[in-house]
Design a protein that fits this description.
Structural class: alpha+beta
Number of helices: 9
Helix content: 25-40%
Strand content: 5-15%
Oligomer: single chain
Radius of gyration: 19 Å
Distance between the termini: 45 Å
Order of helices and strands: HEHHEEHEEEEEEHHHHH
């Protein structure tokens, strides 16, 4: 049986590579998930503009308890969690990763036929295929297949074999095609300008194919986040919203662009949880 000290040692090593970690209890449930924060009652969500960060007396929120901070991992507050932990989990989206969870042989056979090769990790019943790039998570996107990335967690089962490939459109499409079609939602009260033009509607050539145009938009958003000294949560959300409103519908944004925005927010003290929530909320606000 794995000892708590062994789990914590692995957690520290994994966190040092930039992967947020959290302890799992028996049954693969997060150790941290306090009842007082159910449905974000604590006000941790960036779209609750009047609320600040969660002030829960202990780490919570399940997947969002994931951290890369060694001081947190070795803190007295986390010691009981490591003592009761049965396994280690990580937040793929917080590390810019997506896990395609294949539960059986049929799902594995489908993946081999439909997806590009990537890093592969054996699980109890099947395999995890790990790609570079974050996306929305979803369960049962097809028989025996779950997608674990943003606002989700996966059990750590080792490094696996192979090299992680870029997240393919074939995986994104598994989730996107499940989303209901709806008209974009305009929210001028929270939509910043950042000096960038509004994304054009209708057909015609996409103006964002100019690298300089896109680079200017990303650089301005990064600068806005970097210069913020107060209301970091709101500024991060506003910057994400501005980038998505201008560049989010034409396919010009890449994982590298998103990572630059997240890195800027992390440098200002934003947690992986707040970054992924802000991105998700901005997508929802724009009907994406």
């Amino acid at each position: 049986m794995t000892q708590p000290t062994d789990i914590r040692r692995v957690a520290l090593a994994l966190a040092s590579t930039g992967v947020p970690v959290l302890p799992l209890s028996r049954g693969k449930r997060p150790v941290f998930n306090c009842g007082s924060c159910t449905d974000s009652a604590c006000g941790d969500r960036p779209n609750m503009l009047a609320a600040g960060p969660c002030r829960c007396p202990r780490p919570c929120h399940g997947w969002a308890a994931g951290t890369i901070d060694p001081a947190v991992i070795t803190s007295a507050a986390w010691l009981p969690a490591w003592r009761s932990a049965a396994a280690l989990a990580y937040h793929p989206g917080g590390a810019g990763l997506t896990v395609v969870d294949l539960d059986d042989d049929a799902a594995i056979a489908w993946a081999r036929a439909a997806l590009p090769p990537t890093r592969t990790v054996a699980t109890t019943r099947g395999q995890h295929w790990i790609y570079r790039g974050a996306m929305r998570s979803a369960n049962r996107v097809r028989p025996g297949v779950d997608i674990k990335s943003l606002m989700s967690y996966a059990r750590w089962r080792g490094n696996g074999t192979g090299t992680a490939a870029p997240l393919p459109d074939a995986v994104r499409d598994l989730v996107e095609r499940r989303k209901p079609t709806r008209a974009p939602v305009t929210r001028p009260s929270v939509r910043p300008s950042l000096g960038m033009p509004t994304a054009p509607g209708g057909g015609g050539p996409c103006p964002h194919r100019s690298p300089a145009y896109l680079e200017r938009g990303i650089a301005m958003a990064v600068q806005r986040i970097t210069d913020a000294h107060t209301a970091i949560h709101n500024t991060t959300y506003a910057a994400f919203l501005a980038v998505l409103s201008t560049h989010g519908r034409c396919g010009c944004l890449t994982d590298a662009h998103v990572q630059r925005l997240f890195t800027a927010a992390h440098a200002r003290g934003e947690s992986p949880r707040h970054c992924t929530d802000a991105w998700s909320n901005a997508c929802t606000a724009l009907g994406m």
